[in-house]
Amino acid sequence: MEDKETRWWWVRHAPVPNSVRIYGQSDVDCDCSNLEVFKALAAELPSKAVWLTSNLSRTHQTAAAIVGALEEKARPKENPVAIPKFAEQNLGEWQGLVREEFFASRGRTNHPFWFGPSDERAPGGESFNDVVERVGPEVLRLNKEFSGRDIVAVAHGGTIRAALAIALNLNPNAALAFSIENCSITRIDHFTTQADGDFWRVAMANHRPWSRTSARATHASVTAPLA
């Protein structure tokens, strides 16, 4: 067996405008108008990668914006493959509710970073534990299919937190503490070796390459980066 390193470049989709309401798996559009962000992403992501998205439009739109910012010779020859199991958490009856009212009615003492504890299933939807359980086998399947390749996967905050939980063998509730901002890159490497078997390495999480560019341009490290 040959040693292989498979590099996952997870990118969260671009911001959803006026996201006053919870959207979860609702198929809403995103705002891809910030060209500085997409140029920075294009400069950071590898060429000759396999490109994946979820089945939701906002990941397709984000992937198209990144590809559009790539040099022509670096653009993938095929369209990204949509992976339905990489969709955001299905928040069931919570989808469409006003966020501020939802959180005010529930309190956030025990789950400050998400809609609820990882084991709480939204009425008519999923828990975050469910997301980890559907994302994990798909990641392992794709590891085998694209072993030794770079994989750019444009997905969702919940999906990327699930991938981190799998790589670090975390309790899903602990993985919810990761901040995964819109358009940020999280890179997770999977190794298959003869000597040591399979293992993971997290190379970066919530990396925002455009914020570094912005800081250089202003010569002020205290300047708030683009979000």
Task: Report what the structure shows.
With 227 residues, the protein is α/β, with parallel strands linked by helices. The chain has one domain (4-218): Rossmann fold (3-Layer(aba) Sandwich), CATH 3.40.50. The chain is 33% helix and 18% strand. The chain has seven helices and six strands, in the order βαβαβααβααββα. The chain has helices at residues 35-44, 57-69, 99-106, 128-145, 157-168, 172-175, 209-218; strands spanning 4-12, 50-53, 81-82, 150-155, 185-193, 197-207. It has a six-stranded mixed β-sheet. The longest helix is centred in the middle third of the chain and has 18 residues, at 128-145.
In short:
The chain is of the alpha/beta class. 33% of the residues lie in helices and 18% in strands.
Topology:
Layout: E1 4-12, H1 35-44, E2 50-53, H2 57-69, E3 81-82, H3 99-106, H4 128-145, E4 150-155, H5 157-168, H6 172-175, E5 185-193, E6 197-207, H7 209-218
Parallel strand pairs: 1-4, 2-3, 2-4
Antiparallel strand pairs: 1-5, 5-6
Helix pairs in contact: 1-2, 1-7, 4-5
